[in-house]
Amino acid sequence: MHDLLLREVRIVPLDPTDGPDPGPTDVLILDGAVARVGPRTEARKGIPEVEGAGRWALPGLWDHHVHATQWGLTRSRLDTSAATSVAHAQDLVRRALTDGPVPATGVLVAFGHRTATWAEQPTVADLDAVTTAVPLVLISGDAHHGWLNTPALRLLGAPATLGVVEEWEWFPVYDRLSALPGAREVAEVGVARALREAQQRGVVGVTDLEFGRPWEQWRQREDRGMPHVRARVGVYPDGLEEVVRSGLRTGDPLVGARGLVTMGPFKVISDGSLSTRTAWCCEPYADGAQLPLPHGAANLGADDLAALVGLAHDAGIRSAVHAIGDAAVRQALEVFEATGAEGGIEHAQLVALEDLELWSRLPVRASVQPAHLLDDRPATEQCWPDRAGRTFALRAFLDRGIEVVLGSDAPVSRLDPWLAAAAAVHRGPVDEASWHPEQAITPREALACSVDGQRLAPGARGDVVLVDEDPLAGHDLTSGEQAARLRATTVSVTVVDGQVVHGG
Fold first, then answer.
1. Which of 53-67, 90-104, 455-469 is the least confident region?
2. DSSP alpha helices (H): ranges in 390-470?
3. CATH of the domain at 102
4. Are 47 and 76 members of one domain?
5. Which residue segment(s) compose the domain that 152 sits in?
6. Assigned domain for 280 exists
7. pLDDT: is 257 or 503 the higher one?
8. Which domain of life does the UniProt lineage start with (predicted)?
């Protein structure tokens, strides 16, 4: 932990009850915690100082849903996010095979395609037609399915299929990609780069919901001198009993991680995704007549989900339940109520508004990734056109007193809290009309949902971000203009645990 004095900064008022701007003030951090906020602060000799020069200060920003290893690996993967059809994706892969060598792993991995609006759905034969000499793995932009050719299916031990490998059959295959020769080293270089970029955007902490054993990965990262950030690491069902036996509880620091890395939540994926059309819904998909499961599907029955959440709760581990469709959200709420567990619902992309009364009475937050709506709008209008007004329902959550935290789900969206805040404020590209603006929130609310509940006050963590301009200025601007200002925000200083990690 470190000491630091920030001189002459202006505090961004994150609460509606905050009074008028009192003008420049000082923020003193001692032993990694805010000790004093006030003008003309005296500090003992030798404490480093940063001249704020009137810049605006707010608590450090968090991304509450990241897959750190996969985010790091995107830097070495072919980008197929622009693909609009099977043929388009095939062309992108052919071009990559022609233009460059096969990666050292021997497998060409791509990421980003979204098939929900494609006229034809991908098959193994489609990729075999490109090549059977090189294993090909195309990961969907929501990470809920893999499109593999025959050599890749064999190499990775994937189940035999004619189409894509999805959901519970896919996730173990997805994790095996990280075990390919050289993949882990490539990933860690990418993770370090990604964390440095995140610091430049004011990010001081992430909740890493990576598969495998992220608690071990983060210990190793600390040993290698990775960028100075806080992390909460999750555990999935296959590792839950091990963590329970270890005695680790949510919030406990990991030994050897300098106190910045702690045990996070138990993560369980209770349904699928919109793009893969496996999110579990109360009503059938509008285009679902030809789907094998027109409503999507639950990955777990209520009893099985309750048993897992209850086990975690009894061991002092909060639960993070992935639920995208409104039926999955309802089941998760009922399980939280029945078990008395605390935690959050991850994504909560589609909700039944009548379920929010129950939600408002539970110690359960909504962990939402607003930038997903930028990518998912076409699929939503095709699959859920009759319920689009209750997707990413941030306004409804806040109006009912439900705690909201924002994230990216990187690599599904970019790890950028300013992008997430902008999407929450405007709900669309900044130069287009807002999509269902009745569910938009204000810049103040979006930033308050991005600081992990912290305020710049004595006792708070010594994590601070300085920005060049007031991010809440422009009350007379349209939501699109406000969102553009948020996306253009310049972070000049990032402080973690009293240490300057970006700028100065």
1. 90-104
2. 394-399, 417-426, 443-448
3. 3.10.310.70
4. no
5. 72-179
6. no
7. 503
8. Bacteria
